[in-house]
């Protein structure tokens, strides 16, 4: 799978891949089988970045951290059909179908409704699976609303259009699972496009409520992982093509549902970046290696198992790892780092774990205060999110993602990337 790699390197990558997937599947279907679990004992989140769950009439309302940028946010979902490809994960002859969400600065939001974190059937299945895995009822728990308004009019391209950032989730993850980071970028003037990789994601809800469940094994083989990476790359290229149509005023949605007003001309695709969590970060590296439309990328705690580790990149790339994952113990990062020929940065988030880089830490901190969790569940989940408080983890990720894309897509340097900052003592610059 990796060119010019000896067998020992391949074995080390295989071990790292399986370890990451095992961590992701700690308790099966908790939080929609994306490998997110409930932790206990972290410091309470601060008010600046993490809202408490609300309780009314005996119900618990989970909440996401509020975005910190100056822009109001709109969002819309698109059903894309790639008729040039047969879907590689199903036996029946069917074109490849994807769901994406576009998050954008909104012109106005008054009178519009806030978009849910998950659509209705996905939310019901998610709660059912999570209840079963946790061994406790979530009947009185309401999943969060986002801070974006459904199909709100877009803030037009005046004085100029917005840079674009793509997002790809981790193995079995769904495009909604990094909403806290996505919303913040949109609130700072980016158009952010999140991608569901159908049949690898735990489930994807299409228009009309059709649910397509994931078809991946809990622990994929190296060959299955390599195939997944190739499929993700093809998905991303297709999404880039669809965004060009969208910006030109065409409607790429398969049902031709009405698009929000003002989207035409809003996307500056000459300033496109990408980030991802876990294998989504690998996807960002691989698409950059083969498609020059993506100018800058970020990998949040994902090994580089594709050819990009050996070929490297000539454009800006940032790695963000954890105390248990980095160049000191992942040979794929070591090789990739040595082959990066453009601007590069390696950051370590102290106290983080693999699933710190999702929406789940703030949500589970609220959940564990609201519902009883069996001691045996908590005992085997303590290491899932690390020891960093959820608000600090989210604040650091938001700040460094924004600084990276501001520097490389907008040519704005706030100096946060120049060296350690007293604002974020949790961040270590790895030499």
From TrEMBL:
UniProt source species: Actinomadura citrea
Name of the protein in its database record: Dienelactone hydrolase
InterPro entries: AB_hydrolase_fold
Segments of this protein annotated with the region Disordered: 50-73
SUPFAM superfamilies reported for this sequence: alpha/beta-Hydrolases
Single GO BP term: lipid catabolic process
Keywords: Hydrolase, Lipid degradation, Lipid metabolism
Pfam families to which the protein is assigned, alphabetical: PAF-AH_p_II
MF terms in GO: 1-alkyl-2-acetylglycerophosphocholine esterase activity
PANTHER family referenced in this protein's UniProt entry, alphabetically: PLATELET-ACTIVATING FACTOR ACETYLHYDROLASE
Superkingdom: Bacteria
Record bears the keyword Hydrolase: yes
